Amino acid sequence: MGSGKRSLTTAAMVLACACAVLSAPGVAYASPTPAPMRTPTPTPTTSPAGKDLEAIRKKLDALYHDAAVATDAYNAAEEQAKQQSAEIVDLARVIVQGRDKLDELKDRAGAAARAQYRGGGLPPEMRLWLSDSPQQYLDGAGRVLQGEHATKGLLAEMTRTQQDLQQYAKDASAQWQKLEANRQAKATAQKEIKKQIAAAEKLESQLQKKEKERLAKLEEEAAYTAQTAWLSSGILAEISGKASEQGKKAVKFATDQIGKPYEWGAEGPGSYDCSGLTSQAWAAAGHGIPRTSQEQWKQLPHVDVKDMRPGDLIIYFDDASHVAMYIGDGAIVHAPRPGRTVTITGAGSMPILGVVRPDA
Questions:
Q1: Which helix (H) or strand (E) holds 53?
Q2: Is 322 noted as a catalytic residue in this protein?
Q3: What count of other Cβ atoms lies within 10 Å of the Cβ of residue 298?
Q4: Is 149 labeled as catalytic in the residue annotation?
Q5: Residue 330: its pLDDT value, please?
Q6: Which residues contact 121 (CB under 8 A, 6 or more apart)?
Q7: What share of the chain is helix, strand, coil (3-state, %, to 5)?
Q8: Interacting residues of 316 by C-beta distance below 8 A, sequence separation 6+
């Protein structure tokens, strides 16, 4: 692979579970045997002030998880609102075209009716006597009959056009109602996100500097323990998939965002939430996917964990509230949560729900 691309080493994945060494050209897509791991020094969970830091860590995890669930709801409502707005615009365009067509049909029908009236004021017998020849009369009568048929056709088309316009108006009204419902859903989700994040920030603000440092160490150790258990299952030896060309592009885009801040509802370029990062990475690779982690789980083809390859998306937690991109060597790149940046960590550092493949 060309110079300028990053390489991810297995040792960095399993030692820290939260960082990678970006060095030699190329991205590592194989899965070698992990290097021996250093056991971290246990961190006391109780501070001098008597705070149970482990309980605080779990509480923060729960708050940020709930914020992630609300973020997914917000993103889903946002996507649906965009779709409904586009459909309303399309319906408005069709309604305008239908009204123009109806006006034209009315003009044509009126002209035909006036012509018929001018030629049909005398009884047929009188028109026959007054005509220069019987043939001329018959020809005229035939044209009148054709005109009557044409007028009936115009009236039928007018009726159909009016019915279509009524249906389009009903459809537009229904879309407006859905749009309003999704706006309300967005507002509700937004309040929930802010509520959960505010609660988490308040909890963290009550900690002293040393307590925050120990809390960060606890978070690191929890991720380390989960990743170690995942690797100990031998799963990495079974994973040998090679990235597709689109998958390589998606991985490059995602890893290029490392260091950018998490922001709920964000799709770049300056910040991302978890599904904003994965959806934009695959869009950059030329393959559009659903915006939210839950829809990515629902709509994209599922693959076994042992069959995953770089570029695949790992969905986390039972409610599919988090998503990350697998980049090889047992590692993922993801946008973790508020207060964090796009980073690399172990694929097994969170409970895995399953794996999906955008370009299956």
A1: helix 53-119
A2: yes
A3: 12
A4: no
A5: 94
A6: none
A7: 60, 10, 30
A8: 322, 323, 324, 350, 351, 352, 353
- Residue 294 Cα distances to 32, 137, 266, 327, angstroms: 31, 76, 16, 21
The DSSP output letter for 306 is G
Q: How confident is the model over 226-278, as pLDDT tens digits? A: 999 999 999 988 888 899 999 999 999 999 999 999 999 999 999 999 999 99
5-19, 270-284, 293-307, 316-330: segment of lowest average pLDDT: 5-19
Nearest alpha-carbon partner for 296 in 249, 352, 357: 357
Of 17, 65, 149, 274, which one is the catalytic site residue? 274
**Adjacent-strand bridge partners of 328:** 331
Phi, psi of 187, rounded to the nearest 5 degrees = -65, -40
- Distance from C-alpha of 67 to C-alpha of 58, rounded to nearest angstrom: 14
Q: Are 236 and 330 in contact (CB under 8 A)?
A: yes
Question: Rounded mean pLDDT of the chain?
Answer: 80
To the query of whether residue 274 is one of the catalytic residues in this protein, the response is yes
Q: How far apart are CA 350 and CA 264, in angstroms?
A: 19
Residue 265 Rama label (left phi>0; alpha psi -120 to 50; beta) = left
Dihedral sign for Cα atoms in the order 197, 203, 204, 206: positive
What CA–CA distance (Å, rounded) separates 144 from 154? 15
Of residues 354, 339, 337, 353, the one with CA closest to residue 72: 337
57-105 residue pLDDT tens: 999 999 999 999 999 999 999 888 888 888 888 888 888 888 888 787 7
Find the catalytic residue in 17, 19, 65, 322: 322
- The whole-angstrom separation of Cα 286 and Cα 282 is 6
Give the count of alpha carbons within 13 A of 17, CB side only: 24
* Alpha-carbon gap, residue 337 to 354, rounded angstroms: 20
One-letter amino acid identity for 95? I
On whether the CB atoms of residues 208 and 47 are closer than 8 A, the answer is yes
pLDDT tens for each residue of 96-130: 888 888 787 777 766 766 665 555 544 554 444 44
